[in-house]
Amino acid sequence: MDYEAKDWELNPHLYLQDNEGNFVKNKDGTPRKKGGRPPKDAQDAARRTITRKQKNIQKLEQKLNNAKKSFKKQKTTLEKLDNTKEGVVTESDLDTLPKAVKEVLDNHHVFFHANEGPQTDFLAAGEKMCYMVELLVVVNHMP
Fold first, then answer.
1. What is the spatial distance between Cα 102 and Cα 143, in angstroms, rounded to a whole number?
2. Which of 15, 65, 96, 122 matches a 20 to 30 Å C-alpha distance to 87?
3. Residue 5, CB half-sphere, CA atoms under 13 Å: how many?
4. What are phi and psi of 40, to 5 degrees?
5. What would you measure as the largest C-alpha separation in the chain, in angstroms?
């Protein structure tokens, strides 16, 4: 009869051992394997590290792109409010502004507010559609 070596005899480092060096046993009496991912070679560890770093870079790039979009939207809204850029400021545009600017704008009263739908679309259209239409929005400071 040939003796077949058991896995725990060939690879004892893969099995749990107590303080005295004896194997910790399962209910069936066989040695219990160590939990977790088995140790791999340095290349696998390096690949996992690179993959993790690539994912972190992608997350940071997405955050940067979102911040750029938010900045651009806030900047155009403020330019519209300062009359340096043509266009209609909508409620959604005002929602993108910082709290301090919103508080200042809450103290102003708008005499004209476009109705939702075709009127807003018409007023928000460029010069090609509006031709000679001028819109005066009078903003007064309310005490």
1. 16
2. 65
3. 6
4. -110, -175
5. 104
> Average pLDDT, whole number, for the chain?
76
d(CA 26, CA 33): 9
- Residue 30: count other Cβ atoms within 10 Å of its Cβ: 13
The answer to whether 51 touches 31, Cβ cutoff 8 Å, is: no
d(CA 114, CA 122): 10
Residue with tokens 């850029």: 85
Alpha carbon distance 143, 46 (integer Å): 65
Long-range contacts at 35-39 (CB < 8 A, ≥ 24 apart): 38/14
Q: What is the pLDDT of residues 80-104, one digit of tens each?
A: 777 767 667 777 777 777 777 777 7
Amino acid at residue number 84: T
Who's near 37: CB < 8 A, 6+ residues apart? none
Q: What are the φ and ψ backbone dihedral angles of 108, each rounded to 5 degrees?
A: -105, 150
- The structure tokens listed for 84 are 């340096």
From first CA to last CA, the distance across the chain in angstroms is: 103
Q: Long-range CB contacts (< 8 A, 24+ apart) of 76-85?
A: 81/105
